[in-house]
Amino acid sequence: MSDNRGVVYLGAGRVEVQSIGDPKFEAPDGRRIEHAVILKVVTTNICGSDQHMVRGRTTAPEGLVLGHEITGEVIEKGADVEMLEIGDIVSVPFNVACGRCRTCKSQDTGVCLTVNPSRAGGAYGYVDMGGWIGGQAKYVMVPYADFNLLKFPDRDRAMERIRDLTMLSDILPTGFHGALKAGVGVGSVVYVAGAGPVGLAAAASARILGAAVVMVGDFNKDRLAHAAKVGFEAVDLSKSDRLGDLIADITGSNEVDSAIDAVGFEARGHAGGEQPAIVLNQMMEITRAAGQIGIPGLYVTEDPGAVDSAAKQGSLSLRFGLGWAKAQSFHTGQTPVLKYNRQLMMAILHGRLPIADIVNAQVIPLEDAPKGYEIFDHGAPQKFVLDPHGMLGKAA
C-alpha cells in the first residue's frame, strides 16, 4: 500500500483528501487483532449522516477520517479469519459489531456492546462510535470480518451491479428497516418524510414490501421531481403547513397506515427555520390510530448548533401524548444492517431493486470528494459514490 488517501474532516464546512496511514490489524486502543481484514476500497459513499458532522452539528474531532459506507476487495486477512479469501468482494455493514455479545447474538448489531467504550454501537469514521477509522479512503481495516462482511457470490456479477450493491452498506438496509418498523405491507398507505437518499431508499423498500401508495414529502423541488420521476407520489411541503391536507389531496384521507422519518434532527418547518421535532410531531398527526412510525432519520445526544439549549442535549419538544392517545408504535435507532443485507443483495442481483437509479447514484473519483460534499450539502438530488481506484470505470 503506502499510498493510502482518505477524506479528512478539518472543521465545520471543511473536508480534504489527504495522505493517511495504511490500515493495520489494530483496534482503536492499539491492541493487535487477527479477526480483521484489509480491504482495497471498491466504492465508498457520501452519506447524509456524514454531512451532519461536516456542518459542525456534532462533536466530531478535527482529523477524523470519514466514511461508513464501504464495499471492498479483501487483500489481506488476519490469522483468525476463516470464511473469507483474498480477492473476495464484500459489503461492509456500517455497524462495527463483535458477533459475540448479547445484542449481536439477537441480530441487534447496531448496538453492539463491546466495540465502543462510550456507548452501545460502533461505526466507521463517525463521532462517538468507537474510534474506528473511516472508509472514504483507498484502503481500510474491517474487524470481526467473518461475522460482519457480506461476500458477494460472484465477482463479475457483483461488479456489473456494483452501483446498486454499494447501497447495501447503509442506506438501503436503513430505508428497509424504517419501512419494516413502520409496519409497511401489502396495501399499505405510506408517507416518507425526506426525499434524500435514505428517504428514497425507504420509499423503494415500501414499494417492494407491497405498499399501495408511497408518498415522499420535501421542500426541495429538485429532489421532489426526481422522486416523482422514479415513481413515487411527491408531496411539496411548501404548498401548505397542513400535511394531512396534502396527503388527502392524493389519497382522499388525511391519515396513513405507516410513516417514516428520514429527515432527523436538522428538520425545518414551513416557516423555514429549524424545528428539530417537527417531523416526529407530524408523523404522530398523520399516522392512523394503532399505526406505526419508523425513524431511520438521525437524532443525536449532542448538537452544538441546535436552535435551543434543550435541543443541544438531544431533548425535543415532542407531542408524545398524541402518539400515546393514538396507540402508535415508534421504532428508532441505528439499523442492524446484517439483519437485512443478504436478502436485499438477492433482490438487487435478480433485478428487483434498481436502487442506484432510484437514489440517482453519481460516481466520482475519491479526490473529488470535497466537491461531492459541497454539491450534496446544497440539496442536489444525487447520491455520490466515490471510486478510489477507478474500478467502476473499468467495470463499465
Write up this protein.
This protein is an alpha/beta fold and 396 residues long. The protein has two domains: 5-170 and 336-395, Medium-chain alcohol dehydrogenases, catalytic domain (Quinone Oxidoreductase, Chain A, domain 1), CATH 3.90.180.10; 172-331, NAD(P)-binding Rossmann-like Domain (Rossmann fold, 3-Layer(aba) Sandwich). The chain is 28% helix and 22% strand. The protein has 16 helices and 17 strands. The strands form four sheets. Strands 3, 4, 5, 8, 9, 16 and 17 form a seven-stranded mixed β-sheet that branches. A six-stranded parallel β-sheet has the order 12-11-10-13-14-15, sandwiched between helices. A two-stranded antiparallel ribbon has the order 1-2. Strand 10 (189-193), helix 7 and strand 11 (213-218) form a beta-alpha-beta unit. Helix 6 (171-181) packs across helix 7. The longest helix is centred in the middle third of the chain and has 12 residues, at 197-208. The two termini are 25 Å apart. Pfam families: ADH_N, ADH_zinc_N. Residues 197-265 form the Alcohol dehydrogenase-like C-terminal domain. This is Glutathione-independent formaldehyde dehydrogenase. Residues 35-153 form the Alcohol dehydrogenase-like N-terminal domain. Its cofactor is Zn(2+).
